[in-house]
Specification:
Blueprint (H helix, E strand, L loop, with lengths): L1 H11 L2 H13 L2 E8 L2 E3 L2 E4 L5 E7 L5 E5 L4 E5 L4 E6 L5 E7 L7 E6 L1
Parallel strand pairs: 1-4, 3-9
Antiparallel strand pairs: 1-2, 4-7, 5-6, 5-8, 8-9
The chain binds copper (II) ion.
Length: 115
Amino acid sequence: MKAMQRVCLGVLLAPGVWFGFQASAFAQEATVNLSIKDHRFQPSEVRAPANTPITILVRNLDPTPEEFESKTLRVEKIIAGGGSTTLRIRPLGAGRYRFFGDYHEDTAEGYLVIE
Ligand SMILES: [Cu+2]
């Protein structure tokens, strides 16, 4: 859907106008970077604004696979050893949302703090 809108608007709008629109559209999204190292999330607490679509980029620096999981964020995704993934999170209300590595839950734990 997004790609389609891009094509249509690109045809309709002058380039300068379009780039301005795109920049403001990006400002309404938040990106969070996470790494997994030694079966722990780094950082173990990340922040993002409320009522905003969030993209979480997770890099697994361990050689073993991990599963990013969160009941409250409704996410469950396996990340290969040495791999990375992109998670799309719906706009959220303020709060602390726990996530964990399902394969190493004793150490791999973190919180997404929405404020
Ligand atoms: Cu799981």
